[in-house]
Amino acid sequence: MAQTIIIADLLQDTNIRLVAASDTPRLDAEVLLAHTLNKPRSYLYAWPEQTPDSSQIQRFTALLERRLSGEPIAYILGRREFWSLELIVTPATLIPRPETELLVELALKRIPPDGGMRIADLGVGCGAIALAIAKERPEVGIIATDSSADALAIAGLNARRLDIRNVSFRLGDWCDALKGERLGLIVSNPPYVAATDPCLKELRFEPVAALVAGDDGLDAIRSITAQAMEYLQPGGWLLLEHGGEQGGQVQALLHAHGFTEVKSYRDAAGKDRVTGGRRPLQRE
User: Alpha-carbon torsion 229, 208, 149, 83, what sign?
Assistant: First the structure.
């Protein structure tokens, strides 16, 4: 006779198994089991003596094995929350990080509440930045670009699911998809990891092209800073997310390409995370 396994025992056993594979083993166990049972996490504690059926145990075991291999929870579940938006994510897109919300906050401060501006998000990925801005500023027209057709498809799917209609999607590498545009703001969270950075081992499930930018991690930012001025209106802003130790280098690149009011902004961990600059208010 097969041994009966209740939710409480399953969580305890899973927590122990995940200790070596995750910084948050208990949370991971709860999230995976709640997903398998199609219940909220609170259900696990309201009904700890419930017994999942054999098919549920099999599905849960398969998900657990993926997590034990190091696969991120977001890819296992196929979704991630960002700016209170539930976004579909796949291995074709980066997983949105909480620190990227700083880029959204800084962008919103530069966008009038009543719209009247066109902006662009370069390297849109799953759509996190563009869709968060679009939700807060529905009167603003947003161009979201990416060199990956697969990523654009996911971003477009997220826009439709969330009924966000003020974002258009274009295939192209950085500013290549902006021909003829004059924008009040360009934002981007481009690749900024160096090709030899040991952190890439921990990020092996995410798309390399969305992470790595040359030997020093700055190749994509060099391209964007060199191109962006052409597509900004006088007084328009460029905001770039980057690595925590790259603020000074990004500032230097912006200064070199004629941007003014250049400044880096720190994330919740106290690291420079976003650097921005402005096109001077000169006559055209």
Answer: negative
> What is the predicted pLDDT for the residue at 284?
45
Q: Which H or E run includes 186?
A: strand 183-188
Rounded distance between C-alpha atoms, residue 30 and residue 12, angstroms? 10
Look up the pTM and report it.
0.90
CA distances in angstroms from 60 to 5, 76, 98, 168, 279, listed in the order given: 13, 11, 27, 38, 53
Is the sign of the CA dihedral 78, 81, 87, 93 positive or negative?
A: negative
Segments in the chain below pLDDT 50? 1-2, 283-284
Domains by residue range for the chain, with CATH: 7-70 (1.10.8.10), 94-278 (3.40.50.150)
Query: From residue 89, how far is each of 59, 82, 158, 222, 241 by CA, in Å?
Result: 20, 11, 9, 27, 20
Question: What is the model's pLDDT at position 201?
Answer: 86
- Angular region, 56: left φ>0, alpha ψ -120 to 50, beta rest: alpha
Residue 3: the pLDDT is: 60
**What tokens appear for 273 in the block?**
């995370």
CB 213 within 8 A of CB 219: yes
